[in-house]
Amino acid sequence: AYYGKYYIDNNNPFTAWHEIIDLSRILNENATHYPATLPDRMNVRLWARHFATQVCVDNSEAGFGSPGNCYGDELKLYLDPADGQFDIFPWDMDAVVGSNARLWNWSGVAAPLVTKFLFNPPVLPSYVGDVHDIMTGVMSHPEMEALLDSMGSKMTGTKTSWLNTLTAQRNGLL
Predict the structure, then answer these.
(1) Are 85 and 42 in contact (CB under 8 A)?
(2) Are 60 and 66 in contact (CB under 8 A)?
(3) Mean pLDDT over all residues of the chain?
């Protein structure tokens, strides 16, 4: 049903579809199995960081990674043949830094699956820790102010607005 909507860039599409179907089966299992099954099929730390980053930058077009409108697109998966783990990479980053950043409240078609995945071991501690790390590290007020200042006159007139939006996001997430 989804073969026409999702694309495989691989020299062996049959194997790739088999691997994705297997990953989907594991994600559909009872969450109590996740600590034993997820680390075999995905780089859990990378996935947690991916979702934390999408939340922190309030990416409203992140598909699976977008809390406000969670659906199954806007990402790239890579299967490492050496270890059989899927890595996840962002795809669409043109709608970021809004004012709806949310850590816990996910909605949309894929929200039940994503929340089951994020809010259970082994992902939850990394996800929450990564959100905190990002918002108090690279997206802290001093870091973002320095970044905006480095843009020079391009930020004249909008710097305060950007910083206020980022502060609201940070306050909403932490």
Answers:
(1) yes
(2) yes
(3) 83
Tens-place pLDDT, residues 118-152: 999 999 999 999 999 999 999 999 999 999 999 98
C-alpha span between 118 and 130 (Å, rounded): 12
Please name the residues in contact with 149: beta carbons below 8 A apart, sequence gap of 6 or more.
155, 159
Helix (H) or strand (E) holding 144: helix 141-150
Among 12, 20, 120, 1, smallest CA distance to 76 is for 20
Q: What is the pLDDT of residue 16?
A: 80
* Residue at 29: amino acid letter: E
Burial (CB count within 10 angstroms: exposed 0-12, middle 13-18, buried 19+), residue 131: buried
Strand partners, 76: 89
Dihedral sign computed on CA atoms, order 19, 20, 25, 30 = positive
**CA 128, 132, 137, 138 torsion: positive or negative?**
positive
